[in-house]
Design goal:
686 residues, 19 strands, 15% strand
Amino acid sequence: MKLANLPLIQVCLAFFIGIWCGFIDIELSFYSTVIFCLSSFSLFLVVYIATKKWYGLKSFFGGVALLFLFSLGFLNTQAHLPQHQKMHYSKFLDADSSESVVVSFEGDINSSLKPNAYKNTYELNLTSLNGKKTKGKALFQVPISEESKVKANSKIIGYGKVAAFEDPKNPQQFNYKAYMASQQITHKIDADSSQFKIENQAKFNLAQIGESVRVKIQNSLEAHSFSDNQMDIIQALLLGQKQNVDPETYAQFSKAGVVHILAISGLHVGIILLLLRSLTQVLLRVRHGKYFRAFLILLGIWGFAILAGMTPSVMRAAVMFSFLSIGLQYKRKTSAVNTLALSAVLLLCINPFLIQQVGFQLSYLAVLSIISLQPRLYRLYQPKYIIDKHFWDIITVTLTAQLGVLPLSLYYFHQFPGLFLLSNLVILPGLGLILAGGILVILLSLFNLLPEILVKSYGVILDVLLHFVEWVASKETLVFSNLYFSKSLLISSLILLLSLILWYSKRKMLSYSILNLSLVALLMVIYFTNQKRFQQEETLVFNAYRSSYLGMLKGSFLNLYTDDNRPKDTIKSTYLIKNYALLKGVDSINVLSFRNFYQLDSAETLVVLDSIPVIPKGKFMAEYLYLKNSPDVNLEQVLKTLKPKVIIADGSNYRSDVDIWQATAEKFSIKFHSTWESGAFVFPKY
């Protein structure tokens, strides 16, 4: 029995699960992980030797081999975690503190990121912190100004305020800290332009070279009459810079179901491969030309990957199509599934954090679904003509790709584009022309040979693309948004998808059984998820800047108490409320004005004091005291009267008042919760 005899999908799954489990926060030292891996390897060798004498152990060998592969994946992740790297800069900082600390630092700018409303942001590779040699990536932020602009491949020396990213302040809020951790970034450094200097002496780095070339291309294109929207699409389609696309335009592509063309992936790299094979066909007539051709094709693929920023989708596609191009060159049959799996293993060995990135997950699921399901769907209809064959290809590829990414799309984005098939049928046939034309435009602009007629012609093509996408996105009734999709639904739907992908025609009974069990499991999860949603109850005080929101959730209905004077529909559509309602499966939100008194249940009461405080008289006691809008009260007297167990102060209060109240609460040994510091307060259930 050999490891090679195990199905590759099982081998990769064991490794991938090990990679994923390596991120679980458990009390386990790196040396313990090494011992675990060595032990599983030793057991693997013992069983391997034993199977040569006792063949009956072959079934046991498979399990041991998968355990060993799991341990390898687990060890690989643990080795890449910051806490297990001796030179990581977080070792010299309080990793859990969000308080800013002034430090001196040196580092290299890897790339520029999407700026926010006030600051330019960059990915900084730290080399020194407070005079000590370090390594690791940080988010470098500087106020927006011409003086503060930093180019890629620059060395930064200066000082600034460093702080760890904070956990989200409200339940169901986007976890920016976890997102940055998936990018291997744990801290941010803020500095003014006067606090650092720039030197163009950074070390050799492929990503930085790609950034420098992109900047040069952008500058050359800006010398021509492309509109802002046209420039944004060119940068997204050909340079991998989709962060520059206007948010409204990006939303339109998402609603139209063609947002994947803005993220360079296998579709783009596949077209590049076809173009390179066509252009280098003439080399086959030269002696040893096929070797030179193979080299040029690989150089072109990886040059394009570097230019596009080496994102997970680009790297996956570059690795996979590199294997494919070599196989095509030497006329060897290559398994697309094996090539895909090997590319994933290679990338995750280099950077296991990729498995946490949404783009990586979507990219691999889409391609896996296409290569596994598209041939089966294609056989349902046999086209007779070239045109219907071409469109049937697009239909089957689009349907299987959409099926593959559907669970993740519903979980992460909570929407489904009803016109995705129409959009892809119109756009995909001409995408090759758009990419080829874009490459020609870029090359001519770099050599100052780009004629204005070509600029206008290419601009018209891009405008037609944008207008069509805008038209499709305007059909709001066919864009199903705000869909409730929980993590349990995600897992069960992925299991069903996997059972469909792993369908084996030679074992139909087993395949049918697994598929039916997966379907039954999904239906049961849907039923129990809805039951849980309709039975849920929660009361919480949200954290909002200069505003007060008290939410009382019962089933799929939310009573929202607020003193916000804006229109009710505006309040419901704010990110804070909309996101909470979306991820809790809320069907209806009732916006109400605040009251001074709430009966939470038969035994607990909540008293609210605002800028015009109304204090209950008599022998009235409250378990919870909610302070908002900085009420002018003698808190000590209030505490003696109401005798609360918990005091809650939200983000509408002045920070100075909150500090005074906290000191008073400590004096009376009363629990104090500030949403400024601790985020939203969720009332406990008894």
